[in-house]
């Protein structure tokens, strides 16, 4: 898999002195009551619902006095030395209302603030974005080998407390880099946050029944309560997907290309009512952080055929497995 295969573009880059594994943090620059919300808004705008490229900085920041010889700092310095200037990962981030202390735990939060916060403010990396989807960049190439001098200068040779936006030239330079999907341990944070949003939303019973059909057999092992919550979240995502398609004037069937606007006998009929939202990856629901990229817009006929294909594929897989065990 390559970066160009991702469903969304890489819109920005984050410079860190060590790779992020579960979250990326940002320190608000102002000190007013709105500093954190402004920082959060800036990062979300820079991401533009895309992916974030992570580069390891050339230098390692000095911790607060008294922590220079801390064993973890020594180990982190060694790790940094092997990775500096490397492009290490591509992440999908999602902001959470949870404070950093809740995301990383009290002990780790205290360690971070004691080592790195200035003037006892204890607000270092206060704006935390959990990593909900992540890909390791194979061979971890050096940024200076991937980008031209001009592109590198444009992205990285200025100070930034948030993200560094990428342009088309930068995206073209990284498009062919090979990547490997890795586990995202903090994906549950975004999933649980969105479950709460879904439970507060006005979801139609019809949409929930349709999603339950799409996810039939995909949520084995979940409790009835958790299963219901996952279905509600998936329905909530499906509604967001449909609204985005409508906003962009793309209410056509992804399979047969049926377009209600081309039918004179459907004048006055809401185009959205002619389609179902189909979950393309039902087995992923509850296992990883699914997004609107996991849905398709299908006319009812194509939706029914898709379920028949999935059923045939599952039955064929069971038959093959049975023959294998008999031999």
Structure description:
The two termini are 35 Å apart. The chain folds into 2 domains: 3-182; 187-326, no CATH class. It contains 11 helices and 9 strands. The radius of gyration is 23 Å and the shape is globular. With 327 residues, the protein is α+β, with helices and mostly antiparallel strands.
In short:
This protein is an alpha+beta fold and 327 residues long.
Report the major sheet. Answer: 7 strands, mixed
Structural class determined from secondary elements: alpha+beta
Unreliable residue stretches:
320-327
Average pLDDT: 90
H/I helix tally: 11
SS strand fraction: 5-15%
DSSP helix fraction: 40-55%
Instruction: Provide the succession of SSEs.
Output: EEHEHEHHEHHEHEHHHEEH
Counted up, domains total: 2
C-alpha geometry: globular
Cα-atom radius of gyration: 23 Å
Quick one: how many beta strands?
9
* Termini Cα gap: 35 Å
Assembly state of the chains shown: single chain
Helix-strand layout with pairing:
Elements: E1 10-16, E2 23-26, H1 35-47, E3 51-56, H2 71-83, E4 87-93, H3 100-104, H4 106-116, E5 127-137, H5 143-146, H6 149-156, E6 164-165, H7 168-174, E7 179-182, H8 187-199, H9 205-214, H10 224-247, E8 276-279, E9 295-298, H11 300-326
Parallel strand pairs: 1-3
Antiparallel strand pairs: 1-6, 2-5, 3-4, 4-5, 5-7, 8-9
Helix pairs in contact: 8-10, 9-10
Question: Which tags fit this structure?
Answer:
seven-stranded mixed beta sheet; 327 residues; two-stranded antiparallel sheet; disordered C terminus; alpha+beta; 2 domains
């Amino acid at each position: 898999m390559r970066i160009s295969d991702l469903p969304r573009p890489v819109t920005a880059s984050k410079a860190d002195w060590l790779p992020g594994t579960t979250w990326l943090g940002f320190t608000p620059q102002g000190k007013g009551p709105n500093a954190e919300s402004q920082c959060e808004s800036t990062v979300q705008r820079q991401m533009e619902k895309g992916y974030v490229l992570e580069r390891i900085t050339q230098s390692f920041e000095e911790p607060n006095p008294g922590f220079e010889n801390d064993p973890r700092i020594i180990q982190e310095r060694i790790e940094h030395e092997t990775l500096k200037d490397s492009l290490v990962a591509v992440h999908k981030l999602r902001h959470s209302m949870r404070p950093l202390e809740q995301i990383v735990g009290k002990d780790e939060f205290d360690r971070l603030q004691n080592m790195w916060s200035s003037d006892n403010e204890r607000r270092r990396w206060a704006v935390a974005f959990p990593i909900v989807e992540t890909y390791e960049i194979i061979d971890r190439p050096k940024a200076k080998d991937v980008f031209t001098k001009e592109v590198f200068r444009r992205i990285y040779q200025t100070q930034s407390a948030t993200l560094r936006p990428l342009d088309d030239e930068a995206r073209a330079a990284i498009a062919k880099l090979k990547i490997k999907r890795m586990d995202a341990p903090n994906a549950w944070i975004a999933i649980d946050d969105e479950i709460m949003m879904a439970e507060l939303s006005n979801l139609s019973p019809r949409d929930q029944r349709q999603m339950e059909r799409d996810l039939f057999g995909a949520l084995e092992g979940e409790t009835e309560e958790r299963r219901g919550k996952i279905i509600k979240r998936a329905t909530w995502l499906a509604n967001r997907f449909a609204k985005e398609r409508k906003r962009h004037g793309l209410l056509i069937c992804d399979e047969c290309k049926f377009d209600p606007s081309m039918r004179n006998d459907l004048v006055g009929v809401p185009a959205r009512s002619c389609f179902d939202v189909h979950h393309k990856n039902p087995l992923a629901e509850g296992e990883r952080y699914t997004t609107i990229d996991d849905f398709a817009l299908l006319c009812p006929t194509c939706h029914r055929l898709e379920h028949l294909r999935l059923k045939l594929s599952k039955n064929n897989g069971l038959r093959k497995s049975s023959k294998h065990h008999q031999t």
